[in-house]
Amino acid sequence: MTRPPRPPRFPRASVRVTTTLGAVAVVAVALLAGCAGLLGVIRHGLVGSAERTALARAEAVAAVTREGALVERLAIPDGEDSLLQVVTEEGRILAASENLAGRGPVASFEPAAGHASAARSLRLVLRPGPDEQPFRLASVRATGADGREVTVYAGTSLATAEYTQRLILTAMAPGIPLLLLLVAAVTWRSTGRALRPVEAIRAEVAEITARDLGRRVPVPASRDEVARLSLTMNDTLDRLEESMDRQRRFVADASHELRNPIAALRAHVEVAIAHPRLLHGQELLDDVVRVQQLADDLLLLARLDAGQQPERVVLDLGALARRTLDRRGEGRVPVRLERGGPALVLGNRGQLTRVLDNLLDNAQRHARRGISVAVTVSGEGRPGAAAVLEVCDDGSGVPEAERERVFTRFTRLDASRSRDAGGTGLGLAIARDIAVAHGGTLDAGAGPGGRFTLRLPVDSAV
Q1: How much is the pTM?
Q2: All domains of the chain in start order, with CATH
Q3: Exposure string (b/e) for 22-59, b if CB count within 10 Å is 16 or more?
Q4: 427 touches 363 (CB < 8 A)
Q5: pLDDT in tens, 400-416
Q6: Which of 134, 250, 330, 345 has the most CB within a 10 Å radius?
Q7: 241: closest CA among 216, 264, 278?
């Protein structure tokens, strides 16, 4: 016993919800990336400006040191959070700005070998406040007038850079959620409007039943994907309605065709029960054979309609025709094989034999004195070559107006409506369905008598 499929653990969100969440996520990522990039660019510019200022002051102090004019207290511009300090290799302070008075070395890094300067960002505590302040420090190595090596440190405050960053974050923080809400609302509304025709199509299709296949889904005036979906859905409904109509006609015709032989069987059985001596066994057998043949034909048509693909092999259509004629023996009129191939095709031996049997049965019902069979190859050696099997009889032929209708199921022309001559009305329909399933065609042709032509593609491996 097969278990029913389990429902999904997490229900799938609708297209509208998924699209809205996706749009919000994309915009959120883009906004965060933009904010991060903007803050990075602003900080890089401000830090670079502070570093250049500090480096310029350090080099100015280094030049004074080389000239021997260094003073103990270094002046800085009023109103600027800057610092200056000159340190010997032993860590002794030679000079410093007022805000570093009495303090040890402000830093210990020096320019690397081969470099004139170096720079780092540090947080320092300066007089008079106890709080740390951010600085960008530049260090420059210099040689004093007495030949001693010293390091000049100059720093510029980064408080403005940090304040600018906080200001940007404070200004943008409330705007990002509001913008995301706006994007969500616009996306939700736009997606709803775009999906409204799809929902109308779904609702219309849900209301269409097997008894109401004449309804069609609405087609929007726009020429977008939804309009093309509507047209495709209507085309599908057209094919479905046509298939259902064909099925109804088929069931009605099959019921009609089965009614007569079943009624005859019942009559024979009732006679056999009431009057055993009056039973004619051959008539009863004929009716049983007729019902069995009709049931076999219906079963084969059902398999062909279902698209079943039986095993196929490469076979010679001419050899198959010779064997079929030998097996059938003498019929009501003689059958001669005028041309017998060879013609190699890829097909199912049983089904192709059924095609030839049906064509010969049809010819036997209408021929006057003889039937001819010919197997040839059309366009041999060229692309599109086809094996051609023709069955001709010297009967009255098929009127031009009826050459397509004879392949309709349960169709028999007026001249052959009798039960003895008309068959089941499925032989030619089965033959054409088999031909189409093999990639070929079966047509009723013009001529002095009946002519049916089967064309099958020649096996490409030949």
Answers
A1: 0.51
A2: 12-207 (no CATH), 225-297 (1.10.287), 310-457 (3.30.565.10)
A3: ebbeebeeebeeebeeeeeeebeebbeebbebbbebbb
A4: no
A5: 878 888 888 776 665 44
A6: 345
A7: 216
